[in-house]
Every structure is written in C-alpha cells, then in structure tokens.
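Allow me, if you will, to draw on your knowledge of protein folds for a short while. I have a record of one protein: its chain in single-letter code and its fold written as discrete structure tokens. Kindly check, if you would, that the fold set down in the tokens agrees with what the sequence suggests. Thank you for your consideration; the sequence and its tokens are set out here:
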Amino acid sequence: MDIRPNNTIYINNLNEKVKKEELKKSLYAIFSQFGQILDIVALKTLKMRGQAFVIFKEIQSSTNALRSMQGFPFYDKPMRIQYSKTDSDLIAKMKGTYQERPKKVRPAPVKEDDAPRKKKKNKDPNRVPGGANAEQPPNQILFLTNLPDETSEMMLSMLFNQFPGFKEVRLVPNRHDIAFVEFENELQSGAAKDALQGFKITPTHAMKISFAKK
C-alpha cells in the first residue's frame, strides 16, 4: 500500500467466472457513485484474470472508492483494491489515449456545468411520468424503470444493498427494463431512491425510481 495515490485503482481477487462485459458493467455500477469514470479495463487473458483497473477523472474519487469498497463482497468474493502502480504498461497505454485531454480538462467548470444541462434536457421529456409516479405515497417498495437489457438481480442487489434496510430485488419475468426493490420501511427506501435517482447503470440508461403503487 505504499504506492502513491493516483487516478487509477487496481482491483484483484475478482470472480473469474463472470463474463468480461458483465464484470465491467457491474464495476461501473458500484464505482460511479464515487465520481466520473474515464474507463474500466478488464482483460480475460490468463495473466490478467480476476483483475481490473478503474480509471477515475479525479484522484479524490479513486481515494474514496479505495477506502469505501476495500473488501466489498463482489460476486461472493471480497475485492482487494490498491492504487495502480504508475509504471503499469497497461495504464500507460490507457493514459496515452487521455494525453490529449489536459487542454480540455483545465476549463473543467464550464464542461461540468454543461454536462448536467445536457443530462437534464434528456431527462425533461421523461420528467412528466416521473412526476406522476412521484405522487405515489412513500412506501417501502421502489419501482425501477429504464433499466438496460442486461440488468441482473445481482447487479441491482449490489447497487442497493449498500443502503440500510435493503431486503430484496424482484425482477419482472420477460421484462428487463423494470424491477422492484424492497426495503424495511419507506424512510430507508426513500433514502435509496434519492441517492440513486438518475443513476446510470450504463452510459445510456439513467435509472428512474419511484415508489411502487400499493
């Protein structure tokens, strides 16, 4: 652990049976709460199996992620996390692709202001149904919509079980875009709803959460 903090965290002890694409999506789902992720590198070569790199835009994000998720049970195995060694060929190559960015990164405040606006534009057309759903009285069951096709019970459980009172995830047969999540009470479900509203499970799917109809 004497490696200097940097933007990239190196994770090992990952479950080798999980498919690469599902692994990357699940890692994105649980790590994007700490900040913007530039890329996730997971290779299925013999030497690199069970390992991944998550590259954050900010060092603060990678530091928080390392502290919060150390030993987190991910597909039934506790994650081991450390900062990536800066001389890693893999990351040097990855950073090579980001070398053009410094000019753009300096006026970051402008970019970050723009980003939410763009997101809001996308969301506004959908706000109306969200508003209608919001009128449901608070209760312990959340109704999720706009989920990507590859959503799995495991993926949603990992996302929601970080909140106190989590009980279970229920997927709807033959419908991949919706699901229910049950908590002990409406205060706990409300906290999870507020925290994960609009959470992007994939870059193109912002999850919508409302209280389920009783």
Summary: Confidence is low (pLDDT under 50) at residues 97-108, 125-134.
